[in-house]
Amino acid sequence: MALNFVKYLARQKGSSLEATIAPKPSVLHPREVLIRVKAVAINPADYKMIDQGHRVTDWPLVPGLDGAGVIEQAGDEVGDFMIGDRVLALFTPGDRSGSFQEYAVVEEKDVARYPANWSPEEASTLGVCYLTGIMALGIGLKTPLPFLEGGPILGLQPSSVLILGGSSAVGAATIQLLRLAVPECRILATSSPRHHDHIKNYLGADDVIDRNSSSLPFDAKQATPGSQGVDAIIDVVGAGREQRDIFEALNPNGAKIYAQVWTGDEQIDEPDSVNSIMFRGRDLPQLPGNQNIVHSLAQLLEGDKYRLPLPVHHVGHGLSALEKALELMRYGVSGEKLVVSI
Fold first, then answer.
1. Are 177 and 161 in contact (CB under 8 A)?
2. What pLDDT tens digit does each residue of the chain (342 aa) get?
3. Can the keyword Transmembrane be found in this entry's annotation (predicted)?
């Protein structure tokens, strides 16, 4: 095996990525695995860390939250994985564990096998959006999560929910997870018309509304029983910042929850009568069963109960493709997941 490998890092806030040669890392703790990274998926958080220093404490930084590859080394107490297993993982930006490199070390709890008929490029897209969707339901709405071992078993079971940003990776994940968590819930989502078929007929939403509709709140209310409105809104793209009348889609007699994913901006203000909950990655310890999130994903994949959220846009291979993918993400991506092979 090679003694050295390539990692892609940003030297300081706002700098471009560069390739550098480094010693190959080794497993240091008994519950870690070493992954030969084959593909990484790009998230908005990646460019925000590089450009703005969000959540970065040390430079240089090896970015990367999502990825997939092959296990090359396993700690002595790793029980569920073997050398050669094809896995996806939740990576941690940094020198040893960021996914923008050929080899990365990850804790066993953050690793899952993926279906044999999937490519590493497809598998790399699952982690962050699945994690965020779990948090949207478990922390944002406080719904039961029956598929999460040790997860909440009591809580709100909404009769209807509007997901703003249904064609985003997080929106696509949340639609599927909400269907699993509360099967009878009427799920509405917004997107541009070109994504409606995917959201409704592939992901399983009950209705999809044009995100640019001048009557969006009315359209959403009309899609609920008795035109009463939705019990909750999950905003995964910060749409409520510009769409200020969206709160009119809420049922005045319902739970009136507005769950917003932190996108790096200030919390979106809501009317006094609305219960607004913003959640961030650092809130994960609040969720019962949080140590089993990736394991629950593996079980759903094995049982064919969770589908690839979005089509993959394979940008290319290596440093130039990473820079191109980050630039595409800066301009905004909808209905697809950007992936680079390493």
1. no
2. 457 899 999 999 999 999 999 998 888 899 999 999 999 999 999 999 999 888 888 999 999 999 999 999 999 999 999 999 999 999 999 999 999 999 999 999 999 999 999 999 999 999 999 999 999 999 999 999 999 999 999 999 999 999 999 999 999 999 999 999 999 999 999 999 999 999 999 999 999 999 999 999 999 999 999 999 999 999 999 998 888 999 999 999 999 999 999 877 778 888 889 999 998 888 999 999 999 999 999 999 999 999 999 999 999 999 999 999 999 999 989 999 999 999
3. no
Exposed / middle / buried, residue 15 (Cβ in 10 Å: 0-12, 13-18, 19+): middle
User: What is the rounded CA–CA span in Å between residue 209 and residue 292?
Assistant: 34
Please tell me the distance from the alpha carbon of residue 62 to that of residue 39, in angstroms, as a whole number. 15
Clarify whether residues 25 and 60 are in a common domain.
yes
Amino acid at 198: H
Tell me the CATH number at 318. 3.90.180.10
Phi/psi-derived region of residue 226, left when phi > 0, alpha when psi is between -120 and 50, beta in every other case: left
Which DSSP string corresponds to 121-174?
A: HHHTTSHHHHHHHHHIIIIII----TTSTT---SS---SEEEEE-TTSHHHHHH
Residue 296 dihedral angles phi and psi, to the nearest 5°: -65, -35
* C-alpha dihedral (149, 151, 154, 158), degrees to nearest 10: -100
Half-sphere exposure of 179 (CA within 13 A, CB side): 20
